[in-house]
Amino acid sequence: MHEITISTNDKPKLLSQLTSLLSEIGLNIQEAHAFSTTDNYSLDVFVVDNWAPKDTEQLRSMLLKEIPKIETSTHLKPHAICPVTEQDQIGISLVSNLINVPSDLIDVWEIDAQQLIYEKQIANGSSGDLYKGTFCSQDVAIKVLRGEHPNNKIHSEFAQEVIIMRKVRHKNVVKFIGACTRPPSLCIITEFMSGGSMYDFLHKQQGSLNIRSLTPSSN
Which Pfam families did the record assign (predicted)? Predict the structure, then answer.
């Protein structure tokens, strides 16, 4: 399993052309991510297999040879082709090896804490605080693990929550966006629910849920 990152000027159909190129080389694309900036730069990240890890440099050389063909047809000016590295199959170490959060080879969810913008605190608990913020211009909820008295149990519970949430995809479950598992910023990022918490709805706003509304939520 390898991860390939290509940075260049953004052009129409760029992702499609890069995808075709990797397929022609013989790679199986497991996952693809495309990012564009307001100043017309593009960052394309591919997770691929069907290439022996020991031949990584050969793959890099082939990409350097083949990508100029796309440049010729689309007038692209490449800025960087990151060294192709073998995807980590062990996992992400969390807090001095106290626990590992296993990484699915095709699951990209680690978030750079510097990309998070905190707006206001909306709740707190025994081991962490919840904030409203933004990530890549999207409103998000940021659950931050409080670090005054960290211990193995808290870290284990944090890791277990990440493991479960990143595997759950359902319309009735808050969407998991990512997590920061590198100290000192340990947090879980989910979609922000602007309607407030279920507790506030039931207790403070004196709301009620009938059988008709509960049935779809349980499916």
Answer: PK_Tyr_Ser-Thr (PF07714)
